[in-house]
Amino acid sequence: MSTDTVTRPVGRYAYDEVDRTFVSQRVAQFREQVGRRVAGDLTEDEFKPLRLMNGLYLQLHAYMLRVAVPYGMMGSDQMRELAHIARTYDRDYGHFTTRQNIQFNWIRLEDTPDILERLAGVNMHAIQTSGNCIRNVTCDEFAGAAADELLDPRIHAEILRQWSTLHPEFSFLPRKFKIAISGSPHDRVAARFHDIGLVAHPGPDGRPVFDVFVGGGLGRTPIIGVKLRDNLPEEDLLAYLEAVVRVYNAYGRRDNMYKARIKILVQALGVEQFREKVDAEFAQMNRADYRLEPAIVEGIRARFGIPDLDAPADAAQKLEADRKADARFDRWVRTNTHTHRHEGFISAVVSIKPDGGIPGDVTADQMDLIADLADAFSFGEIRVTHMQNVVLGHVRKDRLRDLWLRLDGAGLGTPNIGLVGDIIACPGLDYCALANARSIPIAQKLSARFANPELQENIGNLRINISGCINACGHHHAGHIGILGVDKRGEEFFQLTLGGSAENDVAIGQIIGPALPEDETVDAIARLIDTYLVLRHEGEAFIETYRRLGAASFKDAVYAPA
Amino acid sequence: MPLLENGHVTEDRWAQATAGEALPDGAVIVPLERLEEGLARPKAAPLGVAIGPDVDVAVLRPALPRLALVAVNFPTFRDGRAFTQARALREHLSFTGEIRATGTPLPDQYEFLLRCGVTTVQTDRAEDVAVWQQAHEIISIAYQPSVLHERPQGLGLRRFLGK
Q1: Is the complex ipTM more than 0.85?
Q2: Interface with A, mutate which of B72, B77, B141, B163 (most A CBs under 10 A)
Q3: N or C: which end of chain A has fewer CB within 10 A?
């Protein structure tokens, strides 16, 4: 197919015949691998890395398939196919993850090649959503739309997706490897909590340059990434990343999987020595072989569809009038929208956190509805966020109320983005083979406890993150209030951390005291929040009050109820 | 497992040094700790060296002009350090001789091996050669440069893998 006739889906890279062939070959290869496994020619130990490289986990009760949503962007056609997969091969729902992917929890091994083939039909795959390789690259959910953006990071995210896909040298690394990229000065990608975090901005000549952070991460050993270099020129982006990952592949520990992440290597060598090794590798590379030419970047950019942003002159006034006329709508606009670079548009966040619901779970019918609404209101473009919500990136302001009415009618209009109900939770012991405790019931109880939208808005910006074990998939270290499930002689306990943040004010939460029994945890958090409401200064968010006063003021509330 | 080259079985003309015994006359692969002994042989005798995955291949730099083969090892298929060693041999040390993968790489890693500069595979695994041949044929497109300098496809970093 020539590039001239191809339709370019808004916000994502348009596949052509070569890209499709690539994915089809991978499906055929996996079908053959499953066949060898079923025939007994591959042991489970040998098959495991192969299935993991196609997103297939063996969980507590069933196989789980994690489908890649590159940098969180997908189209309505793709969402409808996911709905079909949920209906046909799963129990009618899917789960959006903090890695901007979607996973299905009840998959049969024998069905997986067929599912992958269906995904290939809409230019999707599950490659590298798991395994010790470079995982799905994540990106700002408001990319290409946000008013504060300096540079659309999706083009480089796609280049990194391509570069890292079945990279011959980096598909059997010591451990998984996660890259995030932002094009905004406001970090919405947790750049300092990634193996590599890239913050892009225009250089002196207008071409992109990158600040490179390395060695951040959560898990058992939470570490804030260190800046490896400033202003990396675009043409050296791939060469430099090759050098970083090559040093990691050569020197990363392989004797202990818990010490195998790059953050441990960076800490062990010290950032200066790590940087020396990277610079030495970079210096001896033939950089011409790895140069990212502007022509390549522009070629990829040309494959992205661009929304035709055309709004009536009075779109903003219409929205103001709609807000004045309807207090519920007004509240939702306050909490669930983000400023767009075009004055006639706005980005809308669809909360996948209904009161008392399971964070990130979405039914097949809801997927279909989101697809329909994306077609009707946002150029068919859908974004999955690392907060486990969905964004419609470009909604005309004069049509926002129509969108909200349809969301609200379907139970998708919860006005809680960034508030106490917008909880991140891992699947926990309900699904996960690693977990020590259930995350979902705590999330549901907290969400129900704080269902009142006025109360939530009064409490203000507050991030609660829940993990069911120390592997920290719920990013509890990065929560303003973090909740970590621990097992004590067969009983579930929950340890609280306070003061974490994944944004520009990045910090690792501190444990405030002994873990609490399950039935006391929600009450303790409620007392914590009440204490904040008493102690806060005018306009002060929870994290600010906590930082001003320290843990002691909150410890009493948690452990010494009145 | 026979020796594989480009998906086909090939004859192995190399002997392995046997521990505690003197080096034989013909083409021989010595372990790194016997490299000096190997280099002391007559210059016409083909010499190869086998290295473990924790070796920085830069230590081979002085010996490379005399080496016709470097064997890199996969103690398990999960240990991907030999990919980096092979690439460094090709890219940084401009080694043009045979790079042989030993140990237990998976047939599913064949393309990765070749693209990192490995030329022959001698695996301890039991698969039929056909599985390796199939793994060699099944993928025809890649998304990043490699030491093989495959033909670019035109868009971005894509390239066709020549078979």
Answers
A1: yes
A2: B141
A3: C
